[in-house]
């Protein structure tokens, strides 16, 4: 297991941003699922989701979060040395979102700006890279993380339609030589299982073609297009509760830590049942596992900053919080991190009218 | 794995009290809110804790919790 320890940095703030458009699964799933709808909503625990409308993208959500966070932290634009945008649904294939943010936020031309293409494990990677950059640039780093999955989700696919939503977020990390808190990261990758969660068409390997938009039945009878997110639920479930469990336990053992050492466990909000199972399997009690999938859906890697900003903004004002975070999914890819928020860390969840 | 431990694990997966189920329970009909995620969870439990690979087809053919118990013993 690879372990990366980083100190001398701090998290100044994490703002989540959700589109205001609410999808109620009880209404949205009526036609597709009929009688089985109730059971399915109970199974995944996802009752409502947020999705973008009127051409809004995850970049718009991230930008709003960034503007508010930079304003609330009173950061001078010249202090920001880097912008990272974690997303697999950028506004354009080229140029990337991060360079766009440089101009939209009036940041210095000398910033390092790039995107990271990752799905559900992405926020952990984003924090890791941002922390290393803050250390070497000795400047504040802006991490944007968001995805718009709604336009790549088939309304006729039972394995994805009731799950996926859209979200954005902004996180600011600064160098802080006096801070001895260690942020510890670890990763696990199994590319041999990449077909378990994949968008087949629309990039260089399978160029967008005349058939890409046709709804075709998969082996379970779901109808989806080759440009839609295609997921094998069983494969992902196994990855999370087997590989996820094994790696998180190994990580805790290497660090010599247990559930007692953390205030909260923040898991990627894939679905409620699965993350409760994972939580129990790694020795945490459910009272340490904040849940937001029920009300906001699974928005890929942004569920971690969304859950932190939504559920911890009150308690974080009262005491420092030690968090164990983990994201898992497309790749297949897993990220694990331990991070600390202090009472000055700003947390807020915003709405984007659309 | 003995019967008591097996039932206790299945109850945990199904999120029901242990005294609500036994080997004769038809888990798809008699247990509230049975769904595919709980099915996945059982298959993983057989593999990890009972060290027995149960295929999706075998799982779909099992009707009662006793049928599952037979598969892993």
Order of helices and strands of chain B: HHHH
Low-confidence stretches of chain B: none
User: CATH first level of chain A: which class?
Assistant: Alpha Beta
Structural class of chain B: mainly alpha
3D shape of chain B: globular
Radius of gyration of chain A: 19 Å
Mean pLDDT of chain B: 92
Number of helices of chain B: 4
Per CATH, the superfamily of chain A is: Thiolase/Chalcone synthase
Backbone shape of chain A: globular
Whole-number radius of gyration of chain B? Answer: 11 Å
Number of helices of chain A: 11
Unreliable residue stretches of chain A: none
Proportion of strand residues of chain A:
25-35%
- By CATH, the architecture of chain A is named 3-Layer(aba) Sandwich
Q: What would the average pLDDT of chain A be, to the nearest integer?
A: 96
Classify the helix fraction of chain A into a percent range.
25-40%
Number of strands of chain B: 0
Count of distinct structural domains of chain A: 1
CATH superfamily of chain B: ACP-like
Describe this structure in words.
The complex is a heterodimer of chains A (354) and B (73). Chain A contains eleven helices and 18 strands. Chain A has 354 residues and is of the alpha+beta class. In chain A, the strands form five sheets. In chain A, strands 2, 5, 6, 7, 8, 9 and 18 form a seven-stranded mixed sheet that branches. In chain A, strands 1-10-17-16-15 form a five-stranded mixed sheet, sandwiched between helices. Chain A has a two-stranded antiparallel ribbon with strand order 3-4. The longest helix of chain A has 23 residues, at 233-255. Chain A starts with a strand and ends with a strand. The relative contact order of chain A is 0.21. The longest helix of chain B is centred in the middle third of the chain and has 13 residues, at 36-48. Chain B has 73 residues and is mainly alpha-helical. Chain B is globular and about 25 Å long. Chain B has a single domain, classed as Orthogonal Bundle (Non-ribosomal Peptide Synthetase Peptidyl Carrier Protein, Chain A), CATH 1.10.1200. Helices cover 53% and strands 0% of the residues of chain B.
């Amino acid at each position: 297991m690879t372990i990366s320890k980083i100190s001398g940095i701090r998290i100044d703030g994490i703002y989540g941003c959700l589109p205001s458009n609410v999808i109620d699964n009880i209404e949205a799933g009526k036609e597709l699922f009929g009688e089985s709808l109730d059971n399915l909503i109970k199974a995944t625990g996802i009752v409502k989701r947020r999705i973008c409308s009127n051409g809004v993208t995850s970049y718009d959500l991230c930008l709003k979060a960034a503007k508010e966070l930079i304003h609330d932290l009173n950061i001078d634009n010249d202090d920001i040395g880097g912008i990272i945008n974690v997303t697999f649904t950028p506004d354009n294939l080229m140029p990337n979102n991060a360079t766009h943010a440089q101009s939209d936020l009036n940041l210095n031309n000398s910033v390092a700006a790039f995107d990271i293409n990752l799905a559900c494990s992405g926020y952990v990677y984003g924090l890791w890279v941002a922390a290393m950059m803050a250390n070497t640039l000795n400047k504040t780093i802006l991490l944007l993380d968001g995805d718009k999955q709604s336009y790549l989700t088939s309304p006729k696919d039972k394995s994805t339609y009731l799950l996926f939503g859209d979200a954005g977020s902004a996180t600011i990390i600064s160098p802080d030589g006096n801070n001895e808190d260690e942020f510890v990261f670890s990763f696990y990758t199994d590319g041999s299982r990449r077909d378990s969660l994949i968008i087949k068409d629309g990039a260089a390997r399978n160029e967008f073609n005349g058939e890409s938009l046709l709804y075709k039945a998969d082996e379970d009878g779901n109808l989806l297009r080759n440009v839609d997110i295609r997921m094998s639920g069983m494969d992902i479930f196994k990855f999370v509760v087997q590989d996820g469990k094994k790696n998180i336990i190994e990580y805790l053992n290497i660090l010599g830590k247990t559930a007692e050492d953390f205030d909260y466990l923040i898991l990627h909000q894939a679905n409620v049942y699965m993350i409760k199972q994972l939580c129990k399997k790694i020795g945490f009690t459910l009272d340490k596992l904040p849940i937001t999938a029920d009300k906001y859906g699974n928005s890929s890697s942004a569920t971690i900053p969304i859950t932190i900003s939504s559920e911890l903004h009150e308690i974080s004002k009262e005491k420092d919080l030690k968090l164990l975070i983990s994201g898992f999914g497309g790749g297949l890819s897993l990220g694990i991190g331990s991070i600390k928020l202090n009472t000055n860390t700003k947390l807020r969840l915003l709405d984007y009218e659309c | 794995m003995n019967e008591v431990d097996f039932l206790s694990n299945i109850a945990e997966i199904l999120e029901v009290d242990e005294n609500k189920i036994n080997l004769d329970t038809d888990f798809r009909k008699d247990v509230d809110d049975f769904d595919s995620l709980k099915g996945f969870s059982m298959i993983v439990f057989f593999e990890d804790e009972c060290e027995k690979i149960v295929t999706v087809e075998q799982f779909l053919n099992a009707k009662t919790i006793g049928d599952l118990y037979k598969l892993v013993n």
